[in-house]
Amino acid sequence: MNTSILNKNIQDFITQNSGASTTKLALQKNPFSEVDWIVILNQIEAKGKAKEKLPTWFLTENIIYPGKISVEQTSSEKTAAYKATLISGKTLIDLTGGFGVDDYYFSKKFNAVAHCEINKELSAIVKHNFEQLQITNCSFYADDSTNVLNELNQKWDWIYIDPSRRNDAKGKVFMLKDCLPNVPESLDFYFEKTDSVLIKTAPLLDISAGLSELKFVKNIHIIALENEVKELLFEIQNHYSGEITIKTANLLKDKTETFEFILGELEYPSFHLPQKFLYEPNSAIMKSGGFDEVSTSFQINKLHKHSHLYTSDELISFPGRRFEIEKVISYSKSDMKAELLNQQANITTRNFPDTVETIRKKWKIKNGGNLYCFFTTDKNDNKIVLICRKIT
User: Fold this and answer.
1) Which residues are in the PG-1098 ferredoxin-like domain (predicted)?
2) In terms of CB atoms within 10 Å, which end of the chain has fewer, N or C?
3) Are 123 and 191 within 8 A, CB to CB?
4) Which pLDDT score, from 0 to 100, does residue 169 have?
5) What is the pLDDT of residue 173?
6) Which letter does DSSP use for residue 167 in this model?
7) Pick from 232, 262, 292: which residue ends a domain?
8) Helix (H, G, I), strand (E, B) or coil at 299
9) Both 131 and 221 in a single domain?
10) 363 and 214 housed in the same domain
11) Which residue in 66, 231, 236 sits closest to 162, CA to CA?
12) Of 80, 152, 166, which Cα lies nearest the Cα of 116?
């Protein structure tokens, strides 16, 4: 860890230039001969990326950043803060500590948190940063997590783990066994140290694939930030054998949209031709696959078994986007020419053969504006276009 960058003049320079173009700065002469110019430029770039994602770090003095990649790959504060509300206890060990954002928030819920990070320099950086952040109940272990678990030899309330994909797994179907640590292989060992494991995975992991590799899954959490799925969490309790609940959360600026359902419970959705209002579920629900459950839970109608759009005559509160349907047209040459040729509109396709790009090109539809057009299939298998206005 390069502590010379904590020189006040260097820190002031980093703060003053955060957000500036490091490409342009790189052409200047290094004003600080005692520190490599590349190191300073990396701090500037990483701090700039932290401004929105990690505001607590950004606003705290004397923070050291390990590099922009670590900042890009770490949890955002918003998802970390939400995650910390999902579990509780006295002790937690994080087997893949990284930049420590999750542990910062876990430390506010647990009496003691252990941060394991095999990269010794990163471990030292996080320890330093936690001192600046005034976190005193976190201990740091710069070693392989298996060694740490064996050496500490204690029972933990929770084990938290965020396995990373091995480089040789690129291009393959994403499976947990292709990650480091190999969680499915290590699960029995973890259960010697705890009864509760929380596994964070990348959002592209298929839920059914995760379930095929894991056992004793109690809850699956899908977390989206501003309608972009960021994390998939598998909550595991040793010897658990009951129903699996899927819990979705879409973290927005002014609210959090939540929805949950029991996986595999038989649901009987209702179907209807387009009514007065249209509903599009948020990305966390789309990832969950709970499409029939949305219909039964909110008592709204699906347009088609595979369309995943919903409709009703009465406007309801809904975890996703809401629209008022102004017109329904068939996807035919005459209707498209009359209504949308050379127009400006926001286009979405759901259960429709043509792509957005193809539709735009074919009908010369410009992007943007206040019009929202959904190209989809109705319950009678007709290709239709819903011309809508968004409800805020």
Assistant:
1) 277-319
2) C
3) no
4) 53
5) 59
6) G
7) 262
8) coil
9) yes
10) no
11) 231
12) 152
Side-chain half-sphere CA neighbours of 269 within 13 A: 22
Distance CA 310, CA 297 (A): 12
Does residue 260 sit in helix, strand or coil?
A: strand
Query: Is residue 136 located within the same domain as residue 95?
Result: yes
Q: Which stretches of the chain score pLDDT less than 70?
A: 166-173
Closest to 221 measured CA to CA, from 198, 252, 253, 188: 198
Q: Can you tell me the distance from the alpha carbon of 132 to that of 63, in angstroms, rounded to the nearest whole number? A: 7
Contact by Cβ (8 Å): 174, 206? yes
pLDDT, tens only, 52-74? 999 999 999 999 999 777 787 88
Joined tokens for residue 389: 């206005």
262-310: pLDDT as tens digits: 999 989 999 999 999 999 999 999 999 999 999 999 999 999 999 999 9
Looking at the DSSP assignment, which residues form a beta bridge with residue 201?
A: 232
If we measure between CA atoms, which residue out of 110, 80, 107 comes closest to residue 194?
A: 110
- Three state DSSP letters for 117-166: CCCHHHHHHHHHHHHHCCCCCEEEECCCHHHHHHHHCCCECEEEECCEEC
- Helix extents (H) in the chain: 8-17, 22-25, 37-53, 55-59, 68-73, 77-83, 101-106, 120-132, 145-152, 183-190, 207-213, 283-288, 291-298, 333-339, 356-363
Full domain range(s) for residue 216 = 74-262
**Alpha helix stretches (DSSP H) within 84-119:** 101-106
Distance CA 351, CA 268 (A): 20
Q: What is the pLDDT of residue 171?
A: 57
Q: Is residue 197 within 8 Å of 186, Cβ to Cβ?
A: no
Distance from C-alpha of 43 to C-alpha of 17, rounded to nearest angstrom: 10
Residue whose structure tokens are 């996080």 = 126
- Residue 133 and residue 60 in contact, taking contact as beta carbons nearer than 8 Å: yes
Q: Which three-class secondary structure state does DSSP give residue 351?
A: coil
Q: Decide: 7 and 32 in contact? Cβ < 8 Å.
A: yes
Residue 109, helix vs strand vs coil: coil
